[in-house]
Design brief:
Length: 101
């Protein structure tokens, strides 16, 4: 699956989320939601590395939670970029991949 397809699917899920939860996704929502998800990844990572409550979860369950939070962060990054009309592929080429030339 390419990045454009992933972004379209993420936007569709977020549209459903907005409707089902009766929220308004304004410009601030995208960055605030991203920050929330980063906090959740941090919380789950601390649990996984025995520096936070394990909530009676196995290591496998804790690792799955980390994977889920990484997916949430990627989804929120894609939503943020889409909302602000940022071409992620071009940005990656310009910022990261220019070091490979």
């Amino acid at each position: 699956m390419d990045l454009n397809t992933v972004t379209k699917k993420v936007v569709m899920v977020s549209d459903q989320y907005e409707k089902n939860c009766n929220i308004n996704r304004d410009a601030d929502w995208y960055i605030l939601k991203l920050q929330e998800e980063i906090g959740e990844l941090t919380q789950n990572y601390l649990s996984y590395t025995a520096r936070g409550r394990n909530r009676n979860l196995t290591q496998e369950e804790l690792k799955k939670n980390i994977s889920n939070e990484v997916a949430d962060i990627l989804g929120q990054i894609l939503l943020f970029a889409n909302y602000h009309d940022i071409d992620i592929e071009k940005a990656m080429e310009d910022k990261w991949f220019s070091y490979l030339k």
